[in-house]
Amino acid sequence: MDYAVEYENGFSYQDFLAEYATDEQTRRWTDFHNSVELTEGQQTLLKSFVREMKVIVLAGAWCGDCVNQCPIFNRFALCNDKIQVRYFDRDAAAELAAELKTCGGARVPAVVFLSEDGQFCGRFGDRTLSKYRSMASHIQGASCPTGLAVDEDLTAAVVQDWLDEFERIQWMLRTSSRLRQLHGD
Q1: Rounded to a whole number, what is the largest CA-CA distance in the chain?
Q2: Which of 45, 53, 77, 181 is at a distance of 20 to 30 A from 163, taking alpha carbons?
Q3: Under a CB-based contact definition with an 8 Å cutoff, are residues 143 and 136 in contact?
């Protein structure tokens, strides 16, 4: 799959919600977005990113995991315009969803990181380590988070998990010999 071409067909955060979310789903995403707080240190780190990073997010407006993670990506993008995120609906983007299966299933969110010129840099998702640790400590049978109740400590941990991954990709881009030569740094 040519992720660079796919990226160009994605939606902005607001356009994704306008296209795919019901009013109730939009409310849930907005409520969570408003609850996400980045520390001063996290904001400083995000503002320090100098390489353009294109990010593909395969999501579902209906998905509790997406409700509790995708607004974090938008918060990051609002800190630095070098972070350019495009959203795709899992059910409407069947080819992308097939490409990004996790553990044999169409799980979301699935995130692909690209360089400024569309080169594949990494993939992450569907949940972070902190979320899986929390789930493992509460296993009581099959369940799917609804996004209705939010654990603030877990949210802060998930924000940091995602920030760590965004930072890892930024350092990959920043230290790339190819990109350093391109930018003369």
Answers
A1: 55
A2: 181
A3: no
